[in-house]
């Protein structure tokens, strides 16, 4: 691919409340961390770009950070519908949060678009002394999922220190169909309407209208 390629993808974060989804996003987008961050209501929308040196492609992520509270669960399909990638986040100090993240993966496999890139992310790696989720346990889960053909990217990170956060999005970027998206951009520039996901203003307006302030 030539220099200056550009691709845009929709990414959604799912997981139990307080696992640090918003903290991961803000570390990635703004390189900041706030210990007193309030829980997300409905969903928050942010964007950030990365560049993959090997393909000389800039990837723009349209990020939907969903609320983890149970009362917002019914809204989740609105956000992962047409998503290209999903981060299912758990807290390494809470085994219950891993179970919840695994439940989200099950739902995505049934309801999300075919080919969605799924990443299982363990946050709060800076609290390893309080760890409840062992890496071997996650490895065994991934091994079982691989047997049915699933491909799930696994990572641990600390939104607090920033360790491992950028690596997560780089791994996702490399797993996405970048060449296909770049080809779609070229078709659009040539005046042809490409197939695939509509990431336009209408979708954003619909999802934003369902969220509280």
Automatic annotation (TrEMBL):
Domain of life: Eukaryota
Annotated InterPro entries: P-loop_NTPase (IPR027417), Small_GTP-bd (IPR005225), Small_GTPase (IPR001806)
Pfam families the record matches: Ras
Extent of Polar residues compositional bias: 202-213
GO MF terms held by the record: GTP binding; GTPase activity
Keywords, ordered alphabetically: Nucleotide-binding
Disordered: region residues: 182-213
UniProt organism field: Suhomyces tanzawaensis NRRL Y-17324
Lineage: Eukaryota, Fungi, Dikarya, Ascomycota, Saccharomycotina
Protein name according to UniProt: Putative rab family GTPase
